[in-house]
Design brief:
92 residues, 4 helices
């Protein structure tokens, strides 16, 4: 369990999940729940994949546009495709 937790925090999700599956087989009552850690690891893995996709689009956006896109993407309102560039409007 401890090695799996350490691997999870190092973002080595594949090995962490393998350790948690093994811990599930050896789990004794009163010990840390492997199912809980499997769920947490899968959630972190999904979040890390989303961030990787977002960072691929980082160069195309500047400042507030990027932050707005990032927040919308993390909330599930945007897909991973590259967003459209904002139209430049002249101030009057």
């Amino acid at each position: 369990m401890r090695r799996g937790q350490a691997l999870k925090f190092q973002k080595d999700f594949k090995l962490a999940l393998e350790d948690f599956e093994e811990a599930k087989k050896l789990n004794m009552q009163g010990q840390t729940d492997p199912e809980k850690w499997i769920g947490l690891t899968l959630k972190d893995q999904e979040h890390d994949e989303k961030l990787t996709k977002i960072m691929e689009n980082a160069e195309s956006l500047k400042g507030k546009e990027y932050i707005d896109y990032l927040l919308a993407f993390l909330k599930g309102k945007k897909d991973a495709t590259q967003p459209k560039a904002a139209k430049n409007k002249k101030r009057k």
